[in-house]
Write a structure and sequence with these properties.
By secondary structure, the protein is mostly beta strands. The protein folds into 2 domains: about 5-215, Jelly Rolls (Sandwich), CATH 2.60.120; about 230-310, Jelly Rolls. It has 6 helices and 25 strands. Strands 1, 6, 18, 19, 20, 21, 22, 23, 24 and 25 form a 10-stranded antiparallel beta sheet that branches. It has a 6-stranded antiparallel beta sheet with strand order 2-3-7-14-9-12. The longest helix has 9 residues, at about 140-145. The chain is globular. The mean pLDDT is about 95. Bound molecules: zinc ion (ZN). Zinc ion (ZN) binds near residues 97, 99, 117 and 174.
């Protein structure tokens, strides 16, 4: 049997009111305008699929391959590809939101998946911050503060720096804010409950809030998450495990000269954050993303590359 090729991908880009121009300027992505908020760099969703750019599958979408060539993904079961990787450019605050976990989504959202996500900060403004968690000690206090709209007291705002990593399990109150560029790796779900939108109007109307669902699913009190593991320095590269749980394992690799990475998983996503080099002889640069399919063999990286990988 032929060894499966690496699936290099071109993102699906999405225009939104809070987006900016960095995805076009920094990575050269083909965007539809000057308010591009999201590049779905590894997406196997029917309406927003990333497209293969090289090799014998060039021009085909990742959703199509998930439907027709499940062998490339280790014959994983399920209707939906389990992960979604995005690069997000926030030029304005995003609404404050929370996602349900799998059991709640299954019952209340027609069998959908819940959503656990994580963020690696690629760049941010000097005064940028981020919302993770809340200050209510009990569900009663949470309900009272939401009813009284005491948002400033309720939400927990943390300072932000380039290279920060955040794990955002289902049930965590969170928001990406103005001046932040980040890589998001998440369960492939779009079930979002909006808690607060800064009283903004869109076309003269406030956007819909989902207060009852939010109260149902918010973890209370907030549970701070352990930060990333220690950096391990090896010959030619360094390695750091960012998070590992039931949904995904995410790791960071800094290649100084070379790195050989086994790929024993059903699939692995690879995102190039910075640098230039090659993988198995194929050129790689900042902003490239690919899927290493099941059975593709070792990945041999050369050059100077900063990478984030994710697998189940
Ligand atoms: Zn979210």
């Amino acid at each position: 049997m032929q060894t499966p090729e690496l699936l290099f991908l071109k993102p699906y880009c999405r225009e939104v009111i809070w987006g900016g121009t960095k995805l076009k300027e920094l990575y050269g992505y083909e965007t539809g305008g000057d308010h591009t908020g999201e590049a779905w760099v590894v997406s196997a969703n029917e309406e927003q699929q990333s497209l293969v750019t090289r090799g014998s599958f060039a021009g085909r979408g990742l959703w199509e391959l998930w439907q027709e060539r499940r062998d490339l993904f280790g014959n994983l079961p399920g209707e939906k590809f389990p992960l979604l990787v995005k690069v997000i450019d926030a030029n304005e605050h995003l609404s404050i939101q929370v996602h349900p976990d799998d059991p709640y989504a299954r019952i209340h959202e027609n069998g959908a998946l819940g959503k656990t996500e994580c963020w690696y900060v690629l760049d941010c403004d000097e005064d940028a911050d981020i919302v993770i968690g809340h200050t209510a000690a009990t569900p009663d206090e949470l309900e009272r503060m939401v009813a009284r709209e005491e948002w400033e007291q309720l939400i927990q705002v943390l300072p932000l720096a380039k290279g920060d990593f955040f794990f955002v399990p289902a049930g965590t109150v969170h928001a990406i804010r103005k001046g932040t560029l980040l890589l998001e790796i998440q369960q492939n779900s779009d079930v979002t409950y909006r808690l607060y939108d800064y009283d903004r109007l869109q076309d003269g109307q406030p956007r819909e809030l989902h207060l009852q669902q939010s109260l149902d699913v918010i973890t209370c009190p907030h549970r701070p998450q352990a930060t990333a593991g220690a950096v391990r320095h090896e010959d030619g590269y360094s390695h750091q495990r960012l998070v590992s749980n039931a949904q995904f394992t995410v790791e960071k690799w800094d290649v100084h000269t070379e790195l050989t990475l086994p790929q024993p998983h059903s699939f692995m996503t690879v995102s190039v954050l910075a640098g230039e080099g090659a993988v198995n002889g194929e050129s790689l640069r900042r902003g490239d993303h690919f899927v290493a399919p099941y059975g593709c063999g070792d990945l041999h990286f050369e050059g100077q590359l900063s990478l984030i990988t994710a697998h189940m």
